[in-house]
Write a sequence for this structure.
């Protein structure tokens, strides 16, 4: 019987090695897998490259992982959300690859879809195109961007079944369905695991083949409205 | 973490609402519109009653509504991570599709804030130096090249009084030649082949006064006396 559910967060983290590239879903706190990040902190892997739209908020989650010195590099569109990031970056203790948000999503999509890179007008003629190939297509400048894959993806979804089929809630999709396609090991935290056959096939957003492990973490809603 | 618009109070907020209200007035029914953080965020609530405009948020919402009154759905946030609602006809999607909408020319209008706009329509709005201590670009570069048109909603000058309309941007560019129109507290200005063209003067301001506060040559638009 296919069953991707694991019973503990520790089991969910098994096998993550030092030096891993970890894709972390979410936009701000929504769809951001806080329980999995806490479990990664417990698990101990270090020298990590984190790919995430933001650098987390406040002191827990990604900022704590960074503060503990476990992150070598962050690939990010808007890292300024966490004071810890700014401190470490200013001190030269964290490498940053700043990537426009749409380019970040598309690089991951390409990584998951077997595409060897793409040309985009985003960033052409700016600082972020420096060192990248630029070519003119139909009279407009396009920048070449490479695909991005992870050793691990950590994402949050709403519901899952034992096959790993996923649904999302509200604006909680964001990077999650894309990231889960682009990692060797995709680990999903969900609010609830439901009986196989409960999720209407037409409503499945992420088909189960992209998912390796599901862990049920019923937790409080994201705290988007809370001020830090 | 709150967007800048949220922290504004009293006269500052009122002044910014006046700018945002003029932008809202000029958005036709049926457009799909993305709003940046700051003054642009205020536009959504100021669209005239009965006019249907679809607001897109790059984190995966089309048909976004105003901030919730009463019950909050914590899973619904806008690009500034503030809680929002959905309007009838809304849809939800992932980042890859959202930026396909944005880069693919499917968004009729994006309203952004700016640090500087040049007379050729170059936009600088993401970084104040090439040695930024903590650079952050978000979706600004994708929106600037991808939306059908870029309008800027901003104060005409910095708090120190320096013009934000310039001959050439001194800050790092977000995108070249993308800005079509600028709404400031002094005027509405189109970016045309001949440069900045004033099409509307605000609150009894004269053309000459606006020119005094602008570090580039202004032209009189058609219909401006």
């Amino acid at each position: 019987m296919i069953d991707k559910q694991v019973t503990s967060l520790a089991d969910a983290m098994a096998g993550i090695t030092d030096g891993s590239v970890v894709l972390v879903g979410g936009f701000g706190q929504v769809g951001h897998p806080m329980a999995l990040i806490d479990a990664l902190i417990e698990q101990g892997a270090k020298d990590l490259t984190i790919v995430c739209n933001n650098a987390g908020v406040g002191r827990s989650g990604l900022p704590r992982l960074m503060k503990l010195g476990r992150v070598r590099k962050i690939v990010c569109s808007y890292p300024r959300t966490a004071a810890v990031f700014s401190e470490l970056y200013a001190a030269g203790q964290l490498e940053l690859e700043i990537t426009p948000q749409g380019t970040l999503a598309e690089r991951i999509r390409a990584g998951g879809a077997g595409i060897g890179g793409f040309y985009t007008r985003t960033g052409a003629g700016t600082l972020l195109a420096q060192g990248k190939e630029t070519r003119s297509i139909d009279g407009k400048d396009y920048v070449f961007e490479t695909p991005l894959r992870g050793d691990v993806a950590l994402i949050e979804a709403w519901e899952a079944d034992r096959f790993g089929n996923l649904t999302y809630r509200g604006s909680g999709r964001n990077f999650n369905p894309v990231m889960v396609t682009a990692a060797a090991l995709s680990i999903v935290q969900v609010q609830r695991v439901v009986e196989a056959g409960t999720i209407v096939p037409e409503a499945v957003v992420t088909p189960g083949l992209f998912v390796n492990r599901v862990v049920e973490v019923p937790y409080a809603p994201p705290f988007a409205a809370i001020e830090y | 973490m709150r967007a800048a618009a949220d922290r504004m109070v009293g006269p500052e907020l009122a002044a910014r609402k006046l700018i945002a209200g003029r932008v809202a007035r000029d958005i036709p029914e049926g457009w799909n519109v993305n709003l940046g953080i700051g003054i642009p965020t205020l536009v959504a609530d100021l669209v005239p009653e009965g006019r249907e405009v679809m607001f897109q948020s790059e984190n995966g919402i089309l048909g976004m509504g105003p901030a919730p009154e009463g019950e909050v759905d914590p899973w619904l946030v806008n690009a500034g991570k503030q809680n929002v609602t959905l309007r009838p006809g809304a849809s939800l999607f992932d980042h890859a599709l959202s930026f396909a909408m944005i880069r693919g020319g499917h968004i009729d209008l994006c309203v952004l804030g700016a640090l500087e706009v040049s007379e050729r329509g170059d936009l600088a709005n993401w970084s104040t130096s090439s040695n930024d201590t903590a650079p952050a670009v978000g979706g600004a570069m994708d929106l600037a090249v991808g939306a059908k048109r870029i309008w800027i909603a901003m104060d005409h000058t910095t708090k120190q009084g320096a013009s934000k309309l310039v001959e050439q941007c001194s800050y790092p560019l977000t995108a070249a030649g993308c800005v079509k129109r600028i709404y400031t507290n002094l005027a509405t200005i189109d970016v045309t082949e001949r440069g900045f063209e004033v099409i509307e003067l605000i609150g009894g301001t004269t053309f000459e006064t606006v020119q005094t506060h602008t570090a580039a040559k202004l032209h009189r638009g058609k219909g401006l006396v």
